[in-house]
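Q: What would this chain look like folded?
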Amino acid sequence: MIFDTHAHYDDEQFDEDRWTVLDGMTDAGVGTIVNVAASLDSCGSGYELVQGYPHMYQAIGIHPDEVGTLTEENYQELLAYYDQEKVIAVGEIGLDYYWDKAPRDVQHKWFVRQLNEARERELPVIIHSRDAAMDTIQTIKAHGRGLHGVMHAFSNSLEFAEEYIKMGYYLGIGGVVTFKNARKLKEIVASQPIERMVLETDAPYLSPEPFRGKRNTSANLIYVAEEIGKLKGMTAEEVIQITEENARRLFKLS
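A: My prediction, written as C-alpha cells:
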C-alpha cells in the first residue's frame, strides 16, 4: 500500500470534503499517511484529525516560516504533544530563505532546538529547506548527525543528495518528479538507491502531472510511483512496496 510520508490534511483546502477524501484512501491504495504540522495551531488541529483514522499519524514541529511566533512559553505547549500516541516525528522544521518570513538567526535557533528535541526523544525529523541548501546541510552536520529523517521535497543537487544519504537521511520524492522540467530531480532519482527514498505529497500542494496546479491528495502518489519506476526500470508496484518498507523502518512502524 502507498505510504504518504508528508501531507497537510488539516489545511483549509480540505475543509469542505476532508472526511470524504480521507475515507476514500484505502480504496485508492493508500495505506498510511503522516500528517505534518507547520504551526502551533496545526499541531493541535492535525493531532485531533489523526485520532479518527487508524492509518494516520502526526508529525509535530514548527515550519521555518512560522518560528517568528515562537516563545519559550508556547514552545512548551508544543512539547506536550510528543508524549501522545500517534506522534511519530518532529516536523516540519528547517530553513526557508525564499520567503524569509522570520529572521534567519531565529530560523536557525529553532531549527537547532527542534533537532535536539528529536535526538532527546529518539524521533525522526522531517526537514524543509528552500533556498537555504548550504546552511541546512551545515546545520544538520553540526546538530543532526546520528538522527534519521526525510529531506522533504528534495530539490538540491546530486552532491547534496549523496551527502544526505551518507548521513542516513531519506529523500522525499513527490509530484515534482513528474514535471517535464524536473531534469535534475529525475537524474537524482535514477542514480540514487530506491532504499533511501520515500513517497510524499505535501497535499494539498505539489500535485503531479496530470493534475499539476490542482489540489493534491495521497491518491495521486500512484503517478509519482509510476514515474520513479520508469526512471529506475521498476514497476510502480515495486516502488510502492520498497518505499513503504523504507517509511515504516524510518518511523518505527511495524
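The mean pLDDT is 97.
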